[in-house]
Amino acid sequence: MIKVERLTVDLEEFHLCDISLSVSGGEFFVLMGPTGAGKTVLLEAIAGLIPSKSGRIIIGGRDVTRLPPEKRGISIVYQDYALFPHLTVLENILYGLHFHRVEKEEKQLRRRELVTQLNLGHLLHRFPGTLSGGELQRVALARALIVRPEVLLLDEPLSALDPAFREEIRDALRRLHERWGVTFIMVTHDFSDALSLAQRACVINDGRIEQTGDVADIFQRPTSRFVADFVGMKNCHPVVFRKTKAVIGGLEIETGREHERVHGYIAVRPEDVVISKNRFDSSMRNEFEGRIAGVVDRGFFYEVEILVSNMAFVSLVTKSALFDLGITEGVPVWIAFKATAIHVF
Questions:
Q1: Helix (H) or strand (E) holding 90
Q2: What are the pLDDT digits (tens) for 176-186?
Q3: What is the end-to-end Cα distance of the chain in Å, rounded?
Q4: 141/138 Cα distance (integer angstroms)
Q5: What pTM, to 2 d.p., does this model score?
Q6: How far apart (Å, rounded) are the C-alpha atoms in residues 189 and 194?
Q7: I want to staple 19 with a disulfide (CB 3.0 to 4.6 A). Which of 7, 38, 160, 319 is the partner?
Q8: Torsion sign, CA atoms 128, 129, 133, 134
């Protein structure tokens, strides 16, 4: 459906460098990365809002690289909604149809369907300035989809919303994607958005793609230190491999398999690191004694840092477990994790 081939964009001091990716028709694809990585620049280049220096953009088999935005079959929704403040909700939704030849009955059908799906019926005669963030985002989605684009581009549609509205819009995006079959490409810096919505994703850093693939693979099997950090693999260490063991400092960590390389990284998700006040009576092959170095409240969980032979490991524990274990800074503990929980790259 969409192919980006060796795309390069120059914007004064920022550059997109040799970007290549493909998105299948009807797929929900996510562009992830930190602020300033180039996600929105890539989105706007696909939309035709930013010119490319070299490379190609192909949509539905057509080379659209030199076509203006209105010829590409694309709609885009920005995080600030970009609604017309002097138009009502209904007028905003219908605005794009002024530039498309659509029969009257078809217009009414699309309007009814989107208004119902996005629960906008009671808002049609209000103005954007009177709406909440979640309501504004639903209106922006309806306006983008009523023209039946081949591709819908979403620039951080959830970032400006509070938690309640965020979940509401996630559900709306999921339903719209399933119902309309439009190809969605969404920009986000929040990996939880990708986990809940997308099939595949790519991680962008400083204008370059770091990794592309299934969301689950990126989450569990990052291919670089940057991606490991981005997806929350806080236990990421450079090591030396000796047969099945990864050696770091004075620790020998059993990986359960031999490695051809000598140097590399291991990474363990914090939720896979188990803490106990006593030595474990289990089959886990990696078990070390350490001391609590810090505890950080993360809302539903606590992030606990444990020092083992001067190496820091991070674990996530529930609030009840924290109190049951009597975990405070300086307390001696044991940690353990399975060899199968270790990712090597």
A1: helix 89-94
A2: 999 888 999 99
A3: 31
A4: 5
A5: 0.87
A6: 9
A7: 7
A8: negative
